[in-house]
């Protein structure tokens, strides 16, 4: 069977040759483009090529400046006051204060002895003899009297405790910090309170006001003021 197309007229016959010729032309054009060089137009002359010996040397002009001298300072002579000599001058004689064999010694009876400096107020934990609650006088040691004092204070609070009606209605509860001072005569004074509500503070003040007269605390045998602090807790059941 004979082919219908003429092999001489086939387009794909020399396609590989055309491809290589085209690639060669493209590579040649790329190479020429990369190696292409261009230059800026040069001036008529360049300063780097000028001979420095041919340049004209210019000497700076010499100028003279006249400096003005500072004006001299004229100082006025000091004024001297002539003071007349004092004729009668009394010299002060400073006597030695150190004792010697002629110094008189004061008798012992005339020397005042300073009294013991006892503070006016001493805390409960530092005082020598703590205040005594009625009924604790028969305790033997000082430590037992302190323990009895604290127990009697707690018993007094439980016995006289009464929850305020206003606090119950409002649902108030909390702790009231109470600080009072046992005076030198055994009475209670200088009561300070701090709590969550005024009604609770008033109730705590009422309880403390019912404390009996105590035996005052003593420091070196001298009655002194003794501050004491205790919390009172208000809690709804």
From TrEMBL:
Main location class: membrane
Domain TonB C-terminal: 148-237
Membrane topology term: Single-pass membrane protein
Pfam families referenced in this protein's UniProt entry, alphabetically: TonB_C (PF03544)
Keywords of the record: Cell inner membrane, Cell membrane, Membrane, Protein transport, Transmembrane, Transmembrane helix, Transport
Transmembrane segments: 16-34
InterPro entries xref list: TonB, TonB-dependent_transducer, TonB/TolA_C, TonB_C
Domain of life of the native organism: Bacteria
Protein's cellular compartments: Cell inner membrane
Entry similarity comment: Belongs to the TonB family.
Protein's name according to its UniProt entry: Energy transducer TonB
Native species: Flagellimonas profundi
């Amino acid at each position: 069977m004979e082919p219908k197309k003429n092999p001489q007229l086939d387009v794909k016959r020399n396609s590989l040759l055309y491809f290589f010729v085209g690639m060669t032309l493209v590579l040649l054009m790329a190479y020429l483009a990369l190696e292409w060089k261009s230059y800026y137009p040069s001036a008529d002359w360049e300063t780097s090529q000028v001979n420095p010996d041919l340049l004209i040397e210019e000497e700076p002009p010499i100028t003279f400046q006249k400096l003005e001298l500072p004006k001299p300072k004229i100082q006025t002579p000091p004024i001297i006051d002539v003071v007349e000599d004092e004729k009668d001058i009394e010299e002060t004689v400073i006597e030695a204060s150190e004792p010697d064999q002629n110094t008189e010694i004061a008798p012992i009876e005339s020397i005042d002895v300073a009294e013991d400096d006892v503070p006016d107020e001493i805390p409960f934990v530092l005082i020598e003899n703590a205040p005594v609650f009625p009924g604790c006088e028969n305790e033997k040691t000082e430590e037992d009297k302190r323990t009895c004092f604290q127990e009697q204070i707690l018993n007094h609070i439980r016995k006289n405790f009464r929850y305020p009606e206003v606090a119950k209605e409002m649902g108030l509860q909390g702790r009231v910090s109470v600080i009072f001072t046992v005076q030198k005569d055994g009475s209670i004074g200088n009561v300070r309170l701090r709590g969550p509500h005024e009604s609770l503070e008033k109730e705590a003040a009422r309880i403390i006001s019912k404390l009996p007269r105590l035996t005052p605390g003593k420091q070196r045998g001298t009655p002194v003021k003794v501050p004491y602090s205790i919390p009172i807790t208000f809690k709804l059941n």
